[in-house]
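Supplementary Text 2. Reproducibility record for the structural model of the 213-residue chain.

All settings were left at their defaults, and a single model was retained for analysis rather than an ensemble. We include the record here because the model underlies the residue-level annotations in Supplementary Table 4.
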Amino acid sequence: MSDTIPVIDFQAALAEDAPADLLRRIRDAAESIGLIQVVNHGVPLELIEDFERRIGRILRLPHAEKASLASPTGHPYRGWRQWPDDFGRLELERYSIAQFDNPADATAAGVGRRWLGLYEDANVWPSQDRDLREVAFAYTDAAVGLARRALGLYERILGLPASSFPHDEPPLHQLRRQRLPDLDLPGHRLRRGQAPAAGTHGHLGRDDPAPER
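Retained model, structure tokens:
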């Protein structure tokens, strides 16, 4: 087994006549490192880039404007949040979006009662981009759909009956977009840039074989 994350053509893997070697690579990666990178996943590149562009603009706003987008309840995974290092310098900042705005929306989508408390703290939507909510939820739906298809693929590879993994109840999903500012260190400058994250199953990237950001 290799510790290299394999690049998988997702549509080829889902096909009825998927090559046995391709399915074996997916199983080996799942068992050894727990990760695969998928291309040809069917999520529109325009949606991915639109979401990243909008979140990038939020993270580039002046500090005072970003601070106004922090969760009013102090929730660490709603809106904008930053972490300073021991010297007070910005070490990490991120913008987080839950899958639903409130318990009522979660209930309407079929979320079980025991999970509704996760949505008591509302999302924080920036007035600077009134279309972000629509784009973010479309991105979330695309990521969740991809995750469901991946679970079905794992069931097939493992020889399990359909729906062995939970598919029915909406998953607990969250989007997070992180920015790691450049660090000025003695003798050099460390450029760290933006680090995307999605709360349950990874990050969607360009539909090509290049490493996804």
